[in-house]
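Our consortium's second objective concerns turning raw sequence data into structural hypotheses that experimental partners can test. To show how far this objective has progressed, the report includes one record in full. It was chosen at random from the queue rather than selected for favorable results. The single chain below, 77 residues long, was entered without modification.
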Amino acid sequence: MSRGQSKKISTENPGLHKSLIGLSYRRPYQCRHTFISICLNSGKLSPVEVAKLVGSSPAMIYKHYLGTSSDIEVPIL
């Protein structure tokens, strides 16, 4: 690097800029999990719609994302 030129951290070491601001590396699969959780928690999409959107089966969505939800409320009849 010659004098007067700035070093681009993102091209030299792509993970370095994230570690400098406190972000850890997230694998694409982790982002997929987060995306599915956000879609389901928004209430705007049904589990069947989310399954179609991400290329999964509704059974897998129920098993992995809705089977352990502690936010389920029993409706008052």
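The partners drew two points from this record. The chain has a mean pLDDT of 78. The CA atoms of residues 6 and 12 lie 12 Å apart. Both points have been shared with the crystallography group to help prioritize constructs.
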